[in-house]
Write a structure and sequence with these properties.
The protein is of the alpha+beta class. It is built from five helices and seven strands, in the order ααββββαβαββα.
């Protein structure tokens, strides 16, 4: 398993996430994904929000680092992935070095991880009114990646900014 060093100045990256008075939310979220992908050197970062009264998680925006493009729209149903959603509810970040076998994320293997070539995940939920409202997903492709404490703290801080 490989480990990537933490971003050189995570505070500067987080400061850049502050929305301006005229910045549309969609632009702020897209920029958050770009900054997080570059800072943690991961292939994909997405912001997902709960919809359907919490029954599903929908991708609001997802940044793909290599082609430098955004997409959206995928949906994951809570009933299909109970262990994953339980982990999001109780942890500030869910670091999965080998996501296909980690007990918190293994349910996602067939439907999401394997088709997209995702080997490692670092997901950080964001809260609104004390409840998990969504998650910022950091998705690594290539060799399995161990998420250092600094990576986890950075991911949680990005999620906090997204939820603010």
């Amino acid at each position: 398993m490989s480990s990537v060093p933490p971003p050189p100045d995570p505070r500067a990256a987080l400061a850049a996430l502050a929305p301006g008075p005229d910045a549309p939310l969609a632009d702020v979220l897209r920029r958050a994904c770009e900054l997080a992908a570059d800072a943690l050197a991961v292939e994909r970062v997405g912001v997902w929000a709960f919809v359907e009264d919490g029954a599903a998680l929908r991708c609001v925006t997802l940044f793909q680092r290599t082609p430098r493009c955004h997409c959206q729209g995928a949906t994951l149903r809570v009933a299909d992935f109970p262990s994953y959603f339980a982990a999001l509810d109780r942890m500030p970040a869910v670091p999965a070095a080998v996501a296909a076998t980690d007990p918190r994320t293994a349910e996602l293997a067939d439907a999401y991880l394997t088709p997209l070539g995702i080997t490692s995940m670092l997901d950080a939920p964001f809260r609104l009114g004390g409840r998990v409202a969504g998650v910022v997903c950091h998705e690594h492709t290539g060799p399995a990646r161990v998420w250092e404490p600094a990576d986890q703290a950075f991911a949680a801080a990005v999620a906090d900014r997204v939820g603010a």
